[in-house]
Design goal:
The chain is mostly helical and about 290 residues long. About 30% of the residues lie in helices and about 0% in strands. The chain starts with about 70 loop residues before the first helix and ends in a 24-residue tail after the last helix.
């Protein structure tokens, strides 16, 4: 089914690498702008706008190599889709919040807005690589161009942006993309489709035993898959947008050609050397490297 994806180095002149976090070119925004509470993901409480105690003067994390061991698992899961470097060097022109303290509050408020826009860019970029999306490719391209335009607005304009409404408009196209892609796959698998389970959007599959399950073409949008057993499951061409994979076991699962899967979702899950991934995603370093 790999023909459904047409991964390329550039798309409409856009480099997908710009949608990946680049901490070397960011002012540590996720370490300051975002709040977190003491939990299994974070060792301490931190308010929004308060720098993490592990953030160094050069905006690097002082305990980056030991985050999980020190109780900061949440930091290893988070992905800004490249919003950090966009806000740092485009919106605020390379002037960091320490050099210009008066910009700090606005910079921290703009960052989550930019993150949402960059997440949409990730989904739209992927949607345009999917062959079955050709009937709506023009609409997807326009949505991509408009979303990219919004990321270049001034900080004041970004603060006024109705990002919720924009997300809703884009989601209509993403849903249509999903339906086109999955319908084609299910047609190919029509002799087997009767044996497949169907799930509604936001399905509660917390702790579910889905070991070896055939989930090809499944609609798992927003599904709760926390701690689910997905060992050896076939998730090709499954719609995984917004699915919660925290502590889900993806060992040996096939995620090639799954649609709208993000790095953050993988980072939150467990896996191993046998987990099959699409080329746009990276195997998390905390996954077992030994093939079973």
């Amino acid at each position: 089914m790999s023909e459904d994806h047409e991964y390329a180095e550039t798309l409409n002149g856009k480099n997908p690498l710009s949608l990946q976090s680049d901490c070397e070119n960011c002012f540590g925004l996720c370490c300051v702008a975002l709040p977190y509470a003491a939990s299994s993901d974070f060792a301490i409480n931190k308010d929004a706008g308060q720098p993490c105690p592990n953030l160094q003067s050069d905006f690097r994390c002082g305990v980056h190599n030991n985050l999980r061991q020190l109780g900061f698992r949440g930091c290893t899961v988070y992905d800004c889709f490249g919003a950090g470097q966009k806000v740092s060097h485009v919106t605020f022109g390379g002037n960091d919040w320490r050099q210009v303290p008066g910009s700090a509050k606005q910079m921290f408020e703009v960052f989550p807005i930019m993150r949402q826009l960059h997440e949409l860019l990730w989904y739209l970029t992927e949607a345009l690589t999917l062959q079955p999306s050709r009937p709506i490719r023009g609409e997807l391209s326009l949505a991509l161009e408009e979303t990219e335009r919004l990321t270049h607005l001034s900080a004041d304009s970004l603060m006024e942006l109705d990002v919720v409404a924009h997300r809703a408009n884009v989601n209509v196209l993403l849903l249509r993309t999903s339906e086109l892609v999955r319908a084609e796959t299910l047609r190919k698998l029509k002799n087997l489709a009767g044996n497949q389970k169907t799930y509604g959007r936001g399905a509660d599959l917390i702790g579910a035993n889905l070991k070896g399950a055939d989930l090809r073409g499944a609609n798992l949008r927003g599904a709760y898959l926390i701690a689910a057993n997905l060992k050896g499951a076939d998730l090709r061409v499954a719609d995984l947008i917004g699915a919660d994979f925290r502590d889900a076991d993806l060992s040996g699962a096939n995620l090639t050609d799954s649609i709208f899967l993000t790095q953050a979702q993988l980072n939150a899950a467990k896996g191993d050397g046998n987990t099959k991934l699409s080329p746009s995603l990276t195997r998390p370093t905390h996954w077992s490297k030994i093939k079973a």
